[in-house]
Amino acid sequence: MLLWRYKNSLLCLRTFIRHTAVAGVYGGQTESQSKPYTPRRAVMYVPGNDQKKIQKVTSLDLDCAVLDCEDGVAANKKEEARSTIRRALDECDFGLTECVVRVNSVTSGLMEDDLGEVLGAKRMPDTLMLPKVERPQDIDMFTKRLKEVLQGRQLETRPFLITYVESAMGLMNLRDVFKKTIDLQLKEQLYVLDGVVFGSDDFCADIGATRTADAKELLYARQKIVTCAKAFKLQAIDMVHIELKDLEGIERQSLEGARMGFTGKQVIHPSHVPIVQRAFSPTQEQVAWAAELVEAFSKHTESGKGAFTFHGKMIDMPSVLQAKNILQLSANIGPTQG
What we know:
Helix content: 40-55%
Radius of gyration: 20 Å
Strand order of the largest sheet: 1-2-3-4-5-6-7-8
Oligomer: single chain
Low-confidence stretches: 1-33
Number of helices: 13
Order of helices and strands: HEHEHEHEHEHHEHHEHEHHEEH
Strand content: 5-15%
Shape: globular
């Protein structure tokens, strides 16, 4: 009966997917914050110049679709990608899938034109992604250009902003980048910083590492990114698994990333989406455990006592908070099987 009540509540709450805050390991926010939580378990890239693939992605059960102006588009197709994305923003119905645009980096010389064309659409993308951020000055330049493009435009809601770590310099400066971004967010009111993505292949190339199946060469970088992201209450999106046919590998790496604290993973093929989204979702058993624990805690607090035992284990406030996080995440995405 208890689980049934929670399931019905969760189904109602899913309607408000962009207005539910999530804390701790599943999302990185505290209960006191009202910043909306947008699930990004699977973050799938779609070449911005490919209208057919953009249309196809709208039919997928996918958290986050990234219409790409950057690495997924050849140099001689950049202009076509901008105009195609602009049309797609106004013409395509993405449903519950978050519609994201990844522009080119500040240092590429292409970002200005990306923003100018794409943001000429009547509909703003839900989120902007800025790759290859290395220094706080990159955020300064991005914000200045965004302000110019949006001059005079009334925004119903501010888009989210997600940055990338793709180099040793970007990793070392990540804390300062976050601080600068939040400062400009409060000052200019143009965006809301919401996460960071780990660009592992560019990072490996930058530090001279060889990419291996177990990714041990990336352990430090992944841990630092998660730690910094959670310190600033942000989502952390893990690296791409580049072996398209290795479904066991994508599942193993996804579960590993979830255990490390990442909230989602980049994908480049539709077959990876259900595997990744399942790995970053609470199971029905976890939801049942969380519902029981929260109910037991509620009854226990009435007695005025501190820690208590639940299913043979000592329970304190961090355990209760984790249980609440699982229930809140389920309100956005629903529990999975298994």
